[in-house]
Amino acid sequence: MAIIDVKNLTKTYYTYRRGSGFTAVLKSFFRRERVCVNAVQDVSFQVEEGEIAGILGPNGAGKSTTIKMLTGSLYPTSGYISVMGYTPYRDRKTYVNHIGAVFGQKSQLIWDIPPIDSFHMNKAIYSIPDKEFRKTLDELTGMFGLEDVIEKPTRVLSLGERMKCEFVMAMLHRPKIVFLDEPTIGLDVIAKQRIRSFIREMNRHGVTFILTTHDLEDVEQLARKVIIINHGKKVFDDTLQNLKMNLGAKKIIRLVLTKPMAEIKLGGIKVIEKNSDFEYTLEVSLENSSINTVVKQLAEMCEFSDISIKELPMEKIITEIYENKDVQ
Amino acid sequence: MLKKYLLIYFECIKISVSTAITYRLNFLLDNFIMIVSNILFPLVTLLIYGSGAEFPGWSLYEVLLIQAVFTMSTAVANIFFNGLLWATMHHVIDGSLEIVLIKPVDCLFYLIASTVDFSSTSLLIGGIIMFAVALSHVGAVTALMVLQFIVLFLAGVCVMMGISLIMAATSFKWVGNSRLPEIFNSIKYFGRYPQNIFPKAISAFTSFIIPVAMIGYFPAAALLGEADVTAFAIILPCLAFTAAGVLLFRHMVHLYEGVGG
Asked: Within an 8 Å CB–CB cutoff, is residue B18 touching chain A?
């Protein structure tokens, strides 16, 4: 059953272009040019109950605008949104009782006091009974190992600890749906993993998650459904498996060589950038081999002082989707 | 519902006190600065009367009474709702009002409650002391006068709230303009003088348009036995002014929901 149903969602707003450079700025002081921004255009999708759906897209694609409309904090210009039978922007005050949200770049914790006091604030806001609050809090802090952390002032916590507390804050009232806007932004690998395993665990308990990210790894490790938005338009809406099948398994390898090489030739490898005879960026297709084999082959072929393996960047994925007409 | 809102307010007060205790020195310094910066003004009145000059028809203690009421009203406003302007400005600049909007609570209430700040406690105490001293020199006060004073004082607090709301609402449009409070403060200061020293046009403005006279002058006049029907009639523009503030603020939040920061 679809818990989220979005049809032809559009968000348009006007802003002023100020221009760059002194003359343009001076001109804008007298006359400003009004520009129409189509943040989200005709986007439709559905999310099933108990699913983890990833909304992917480069910066400024319209992901956050979509999330804001889904949480009810932004009116759509047109279109239909139904979340658990509520129209978020119209039924906001009742609706938000049933949702949680974590914004990677905006904190809900109160800066000067320990997270536990912020949690008590949410207890009052969501009218959580004492017993239930204690139980949920123990459960959530236990999962993250935050027992000692929640007593320290928020300002002294590390970013990772703070993000974990943000998750606890968002889950205290046991929401059915949780919206995550760039939840792992700026975190180190270990903190990212802790948060991802927390999301998986909560999902096993039936919580539906919608997450926006430009980190493909978040989606790979969590989401079953992927929606890709670019320039406000939906360019892909299917399972992660189908996305992978369409793109083929690809990785990006960056190599810094100790001895110069005029070119690197190997099956399944494409040079996408060459800064000098010492620095290469390669796109590796892993359809017929593993990353292990490729690294081994590279080690035999050349000597390198540094190697990094990365996911395909978002822009590249979108270009490939556009090029592959069969995807949609 | 009321119980929920009371609980939230209680939590907010707890948080404000915790924050004040965390930054003890800052809290004490804030309190000290607040009283010093506000107490200078009655000192000017003392100097005026000390040099033999006066506000025509007003004794020193009568003027001090008006200024004491104004000081108390300022302190109450600072403690309970003046933080709204800075909180709103901060949220609008950061585009973070969503954090408040995703909570199942009235946005305006939450912003006011979460900015309760006790840095003006010293000012309130100072105001009360000044009030007591001035009152002891102005003659007998009846129970009816006290009742009239309370009603008019509350109306004055409403005006203070209206000003706070209008300032906060305008900060949605003129993002980060810290000059706005200065304009409103200048208008507010008309409320701390006897109103009959002003030309008719000004006292009409301070009574009916932006009724700042209700902040200091009219409640004090009640204690001096000079509150007439006009004083009570002005409660109406005071309430209308506050209501206008609430409506304007809500309208701006609505606009914010339309563009999202």
From this structure: yes
